[in-house]
Amino acid sequence: MENTHKLVILVGSVREGRFGPTVASWVADQAAAHGGFEVSVVDLAEVDVPLALPAVPPLLAGDDYPRPAGMAALTEALEGADAIVVVTPEYNHSYPASLKAAVDWHFTQWTAKPVAFVSYGGAAGGRHAVLHLENVLTELHAVTVRDGLAFPNYYAAWEDGRPLDPEASGHAKKLFDQLAWWAGALHAAREAVPYPA
Given 39, 54, 119, 180, which residue has the most CB atoms within 10 angstroms? Predict the structure, then answer.
């Protein structure tokens, strides 16, 4: 398809026995079915993401930021993305440390790009995690998409790798319609005028 946008689906949990890859796989299928995206999945469990950061902030270091070699695929994926979907659980009313570390190792890679959220958890469905992520990514000049997907009590709401809610695919289409619009608008804006530093 001519007007496809590069979409990165980021699996934020690295916990043993995590449910994130199941959610991400379904999200990737929904994105592919939408037709507006070239989809790739990046699983943080397969990336070297240390918690200790270099002394120099990434904004000041620019392209010379000393990231571990094992982070190169993540950095390249975020750099080339037109849009990002973050798949996150909720741990103690927030999101995983692995995801915070991955965000903090990058800066310009998020700038002026749309980010949507798919969350899962207990009664809140991961919404507390998303609220925190929206604050963090706004600080990095990303544009967060309002209509995300949340799966409360996911352990009872999924079967055979898919949500039991028959309306879930419709909600996913709405998310991807909005994400595609933002991806196109922001890509065109970045091409036309450099984002103000």
Answer: 119
DSSP-H helix ranges across the chain: 20-34, 58-61, 72-80, 97-104, 127-139, 154-157, 168-192
Per residue in 169-190, pLDDT tens? 999 999 999 999 999 999 999 9
Q: Are 119 and 147 in contact (CB under 8 A)?
A: no
pLDDT value, residue 2: 54
Give the chain's length: 197
**Which amino acid, residue 40?**
S
pTM beyond 0.70: yes
> What's the rounded Cα separation, in Å, for the pair 17 and 39?
24
CA atoms within 13 A on the CB side of 79: 10
Sign of CA dihedral 15, 160, 26, 29: positive
What percent of the chain is predicted at pLDDT more than 70?
A: 97
How do the domains of the chain map onto residue ranges? 5-192
Cα atoms in the Cβ-side hemisphere of radius 13 Å centred on 173? 8
Strand partners, 41: 9
Q: Tally DSSP H helices, then E strands, for the chain.
A: 7, 8
Tokens, residue 51: 């918690």
pLDDT digits (tens, 9 = 90+) for 4-63: 999 999 999 999 999 999 999 999 999 999 999 999 999 999 999 999 988 887 667 667
